[in-house]
Design a protein that fits this description.
about 425 residues; hpI Integrase, Chain A; three-stranded antiparallel β-sheet; Double Stranded RNA Binding Domain; 17 helices; elongated; alpha+beta; 3 domains; disordered C terminus
Length: about 425
């Protein structure tokens, strides 16, 4: 290879001869340094050397960005690396990767909570389950809502959600002091909403800690700081339950509701002890009138199958089949969603001051345990295995059926329902 001393004029005037795909000019003063040109491409400095018995070539850069002296220095650096037994190509790849990682880290440090929140809503999920309940997702959205929208009920506009002030903050800036300042400000409006917002935000922080890109930017201890936790209101354990003496009045009032679907739904909660969302999502294909069983979506397992008792079968068979859902609705979800208004009418008619829908589940547990083994009640209600009575073996459906029927008869007796009404239609 002919070599010449690189000068600015020679570098600028070097062209690719016609008919050739590329051409090289080599510097006589710097071993391995060359200038490569193509017919249409821009010229670039290159280094060519021998590593482990093989020729290697590395692009240095354009003459527009590198002076001759800089290109010569870089070529000598590459040769020095080869003399030390190192592959310049690998070192260059490592340097580029490190720079890329550094750039990504800098970009991640600038990400805000609000930029990550939509991804969290899509990809986040609770332990041991594939996804959140739709209602919880809606709560997460409301907590981070900017507000300022016309109220659906009454006049005025909605206020920002408790988590909205955190949305504009960088994830790396969520410290103990920042959370304490935010919580104290939100607690002035509502201590319980601020506490609930904190619990939700701690879930978001745990999710961030599982993502390699954000793991080093989140301080999980910030949400558990003693200065923050000591100001949280004590958790209230709800113990409301439909008492035995109240069942007759409650049942009669529920039976007289003009909304037939809500009427049957409320009584089905009492007769099964199911959670409200489990019963609301029941589909006709999950109701087996022939073999008398229900398959219910379960909070712990994906589903559980329980006996379909006689009176419950009678109630369900009387519902119209509008769509796939047993408790159908003309709303967007196609099923019953919120029956609190109907339940409030029942409570007023029965002169019961206060009772949540979960209080019906507690009533089933109490009345059931009065007549059958505790483990049978737990199995029907879908409690985790650790919550069943000691020594209780999970029963097959046929062995569980007599217990389910006994609980129903006991509840119906307290409700004043005749046995004749217990036969299915």
């Amino acid at each position: 290879m002919a070599k010449v001393s690189f000068t600015a004029a020679r570098v600028a005037g070097f062209k690719c001869p016609p008919g050739k795909a590329q051409a090289f000019m080599w510097d006589e003063g710097t071993p391995g340094l060359g200038l490569r040109v193509t017919p249409n491409g821009k010229p670039s400095y290159v280094f060519q050397g021998s590593y482990c018995g093989r020729d290697i070539r590395i692009t240095i850069g354009s003459p527009a960005a590198w002076s001759i002296k800089e290109a010569q220095a870089k070529a000598r650096e590459f040769q020095r690396q080869i003399d030390e037994g190192k592959d310049p190509r690998g070192l260059k790849r490592e340097a580029l990767a490190a720079q890329k990682a550094d750039d990504a880290q800098r970009a991640a440090q600038g990400v805000t909570v609000g930029e990550l929140w939509p991804t969290y809503l899509t990809e986040g999920k609770p332990k041991r389950r594939d996804a959140w309940k739709p209602r919880y997702v809606e709560d997460l959205k409301k907590m981070a809502d900017p507000g300022g929208k016309p109220k659906k009920r009454g006049s005025g506009k909605t206020r920002p959600g408790p988590l909205w002030p955190l949305m504009s903050m960088r994830l790396v800036d969520i410290t103990e002091d920042a959370l304490k300042e935010w919580h104290d400000a939100e607690a002035k409006a509502s201590r319980h909403q601020a506490a609930r917002g904190l619990m939700m935000f701690r879930g978001f922080m745990r999710w961030c800690a599982t993502r390699p890109r954000y793991r080093d930017l989140v301080d999980l201890d910030a949400g558990r700081a003693p200065a923050l936790l000591q100001d949280l209101p004590g958790a209230k354990r709800r113990t409301d339950v439909l008492e035995s003496a109240q069942m007759r009045g409650w049942w009669s009032a529920a039976e007289q509701l003009t909304n037939r679907t809500a009427s049957v739904y409320l009584r089905a909660l009492l007769l099964t002890g199911a959670r409200r969302e489990e019963m609301a999502g029941l589909r006709w294909k999950e109701v087996d009138f022939t073999w008398r069983k229900l398959t219910i979506a379960d909070k712990v397992a994906k589903a559980r199958t329980i006996p379909l008792t006689a009176h419950l079968a009678h109630l369900l068979a009387g519902l119209p089949r509008i769509n796939e859902f047993v408790f159908a609705s003309t709303g967007k979800k196609g099923r019953i969603v919120d029956v609190r208004a109907s339940h409030q009418k029942v409570l007023q008619a029965a002169a019961i001051p206060h009772l949540t829908l979960h209080g019906l589940r507690r009533a089933y547990k109490q009345r059931g345990r009065a007549v059958v083994p505790h483990g049978a009640v737990d199995q029907i209600q879908g409690h985790a295995p650790s919550g069943t009575a000691d020594g209780y073996a999970v029963l097959p459906l046929d062995d569980l059926r007599p217990f389910a029927e006994a609980i129903e008869r006991h509840i119906l007796e307290l409700a004043g329902v005749s046995s004749a009404g217990s036969e299915p239609a």
